[in-house]
Every structure is written in C-alpha cells, then in structure tokens.
From TrEMBL:
4Fe-4S is among the record's keywords: no
Stretches that traverse the bilayer: 6-28
Protein's recorded name: YggT family protein
GO cellular component: membrane
InterPro entries, per the entry: CCB3/YggT (IPR003425)
Pfam families associated with the record: CCB3_YggT (PF02325)
PANTHER family for this protein: PROTEIN COFACTOR ASSEMBLY OF COMPLEX C SUBUNIT B CCB3, CHLOROPLASTIC-RELATED, YLMG HOMOLOG PROTEIN 2, CHLOROPLASTIC
The entry's keywords: Membrane, Transmembrane, Transmembrane helix
C-alpha cells in the first residue's frame, strides 16, 4: 500500500517541476530565435505546450506578449498551496 506521504511528496515534486518548467518557458520566450522543437529546449516545450495551447485559445496576447505561461505558474502555485501548503487540504488530511 502506498503511504499518503509518498503521494503528497510525489504531487509536490510534480507541481514544483511544472512551475519550474513554466518559468523556464517564460525566460525562453524572451529569446524568439530559440527553436523549442530542438534538444534541450524540447524538454521544456513538450510538457508545457498542451497547457499553453488550450489557454492561448482563451487569453489573447497582451501587447503582443503571450502571458499564458504566467497564468499557468499562478495556477500551479495556487494548486500546490491549496493542496500541500501549511494548511492545505492534503496536509490537513494527513495530520
């Protein structure tokens, strides 16, 4: 049986990794000459692009700047805090 601590730790790592990848994606957006389909940049683009495609349909660029990675950093940070923060739902259930 998988302990709840392992589930909590795994979820924390996954959410933290996605936040990190979106931050890298934000930095890479400052360099339009970067080919996101080439190694090593594809390692950032492949897991983040499915989220960004959906969000780009809902949120138009602001002043020519794609803000969708910033939106996802906020959403993943919020989810991590709500679930795993000091008074998060999973944290409270495990204690």
């Amino acid at each position: 049986m998988i302990s709840s601590t392992v589930v909590s730790l795994t979820l924390s790592i996954l959410l933290g990794l996605m936040i990190f990848l979106f931050i890298i994606r934000i930095v890479l957006s400052w360099y339009p000459q970067v080919a996101l389909n080439k190694f090593p940049f594809s390692w950032v683009a492949i897991p983040t692009e499915p989220f960004l495609v959906v969000t780009r349909k809902l949120i138009a660029p602001v002043g020519g700047v794609d803000i969708t990675p910033i939106v996802w950093v906020g959403l993943f940070s919020l989810a991590r805090e709500i679930l795993l923060g000091q008074q998060g739902l999973l944290t409270m259930m495990l204690n």
